[in-house]
Amino acid sequence: MFKIEKKEELSDLVTLFEIEAKDIAKKAKAGNFFVLKIHEEGERIPLTIADFDTERGTITTVFQKVGKTTHHLGTFNKDDYISDVIGPLGRHSHIEKFGKVVCVGGGVGIAPIYPIARALKEAGNTVISIIGARAKNLIFWEDKMRRVSDELIITTDDGSYGRKAVVTVPLDELLRENNDIQLIYAIGPAIMMKFVCKTTEKYNVKTIVSLNSIMVDATGMCGACRIEVGGKTQFACVDGPEFDGHKVDFDLLMSRQRMYIDEEKIALERYTV
Amino acid sequence: MEERKEDKKPKNRVKMREQDPLVRARNFMEVPYGYTPEEAIEEASRCLSCLNPSCTKGCPVAVDIPSFIKLIKEGKFIEAAWKIKEENALPAVCGRVCPQEIQCESLCILGKKGEPVAIGNLERFAADYETEKGEIQLPEKPKPTGRKIAIIGSGPGGLTCASDLIKSGHQVTLFEALHKPGGVLMYGIPEFRLPKAIVGKEVDYIKKLGVEVVVNAVIGKLYSVDELFNEYGSDACFIATGAGLPMFLGISGENLNGIYSANEFLTRANLMKAYLFPEYDTPIKRGKKVAVFGGGNVAMDAARVALRLGAEKVYLIYRRSEDEMPARKAENHHAHEEGIEFMLLTNPTRFIDDGKGNVCAVECIKMELGEPDQSGRKKPIPIQGSEFQIEIDVGIPALGTRSNPLLVSTLPDLKLNKRGYIMAEEETGMTSKLGVFAGGDIVTGSATVILAMGAGRKAAKAINEYLKWKYWDTSGFAKTE
Ligand SMILES: Cc1cc2nc3c(=O)[nH]c(=O)nc-3n(C[C@H](O)[C@H](O)[C@H](O)COP(=O)(O)OP(=O)(O)OC[C@H]3O[C@@H](n4cnc5c(N)ncnc54)[C@H](O)[C@@H]3O)c2cc1C
Ligand code: SF4
Ligand code: FES
User: Fold this and answer.
1) Is there a contact between B255 and A233 if contact means CB atoms under 8 Å apart?
2) pTM for the full predicted model
């Protein structure tokens, strides 16, 4: 059983938990994820480790209420217990001094991009960050992101905050104006990552994405998470979750993410009525 | 071998009653009902109590078969269970899933003229009787030795090693990556062959003996093996992580929605109880037309689960003929009875997309058998131009598993064989890393429950020796590469 130490509503749809998980916190690194299962009948879902505190022995996760499990999870409060928390999983981000880098976080992807931006900053990189969402009420962690970035650009689809644009617009401008950008990190909805990669491909700048495929065990035992990278099948849970975005088949990823769309609807409806 | 005079006339085996095939094909309840006490006594009475029994030699953990059968004959059912437990910590499991027909029962003297004693059925009976009556006997607590052992993986190998070592008085911790202990018993073998409640009880027994079970602990990620030694303070470690890496066919369209590895399909159904969706949250595609590829026990299990999830048609597609199938004959028989359609000498060549990312058909090619290959089985050869398509909405490659590199890749000083399995000495489980023993599927590749248990037992013995002498000689296994 894993205790929720802190709960914070970051936006209308996005919730933050700090979960007591001493041993995971000790081992976690930027880019890792974990799996949780909320109760006996629950499913196993992967969530990114958005932050970790070795001293307090906690990991932070930020999730958006989309399906049954995340809606149910959203009703949990401080001092409630989650039955299973498994991690840290996946390969962690490869951090070194690259020079100038751009970190792009879209929607709930702002959370997992944060520890990566921080680690890149700590490694001595110049970090330009772009965070974007549909509207102002879905933007969070502006301050945190500003603290670890040399420059922060905010976009919203509807223009209710920051620039009225999708993240690829300022990204394209940055790439046009700076020919010394060495690396792009992008985390967000698959469709956003796909267009980020389309943008950066033109400039031939290496782009790392973190893929959120459907998982079960997340230890390489089942293959539920398989995706194609450079025409080869890979398991996102153990070979990733980070991959070279220019090689990822995003259409396959998006199709596989929709595999249980009917079942998800049934589960959510059953849960909400 | 001596036979007693009075039992001359060989009687037939007492059949275990089963659910009707067409009824059971639609539910997840266990297929056989188990013996009644009367049936058990009757079957036990067939045993000749040989003085020099051969059955025992066929048992990888050397259960004293004639003695426990004699106790059943005398109506001492609980004592019979205890007798088995002296050698085998998981009798209710083994009674159900061991391939007795090629082990103990294949050597039973009665098998020469008629049917061998139904040793497996009797083992199951005794174990179930004990559980039902609640008279689980805990052995006396041994004197604590102050030694600590870490066991990685809670399948039959890990469970057996843990139960042996706790009885030697060591402090034993069993680390399991998943949220439930039991390994393949929990996530792979379906409910109707091995009810999960039984696995749960066996694990509880091992906990009652004093073994600490830590679930959700992915070793190699959460803790390294070196940390288990240095920080946790282990004196020795046993790795029994199984062979959990699914193989795929490697043909086009294999990543379409609706294609599952057998591991995923079975894990969703068994461990996550997706057959109870939406009471349980994990979904699974309930295919109308399902094709399973492969001819082993895992393929049979996947096919029978698909049927129970409501499929109208389940095809078992295998590239050789039924004679070459590695599955247990009894499982083939069950599958046939339940209406699974065997498509033999057939090999899939590609999966076809419905235009929306879902599989809608599989293209196959007919095969014929040529000369025997290295495995001694006749090599299947495709018949040019014989391609045809079958409509399916779920496809399940069940081609076996390989070594999962998650843990072993973190141990550069652990020698692996060419296929990625841990090299360990057969009699002891000793590996190339000081203090580290290994056994079960992670050493042998996919094998059986009882062989993993045997390996756990041998390692437990060797660990006790090692703790005494701290002697590490790995010259033995280096030759076996
Ligand atoms: C569907 C199916 C049906 C089968 N049917 C039969 C049958 O009828 N009869 C029979 O005799 N055999 C059968 N087998 C084979 C049998 O189940 C295996 O040979 C046996 O379970 C192997 O035992 P094990 O202890 O080596 O490993 P496993 O049972 O595979 O257990 C390994 C455990 O280790 C855990 N683990 C892995 N990596 C880590 C890590 N890094 N850290 C912590 N834990 C880890 C896994 O999660 C797992 O729980 C079947 C197998 C399958 C898949
Ligand atoms: S089971 Fe068969 S071989 Fe074993 S003691 Fe009985 S008759 Fe003899
Ligand atoms: S989630 Fe099972 S292998 Fe990746």
Assistant:
1) yes
2) 0.93
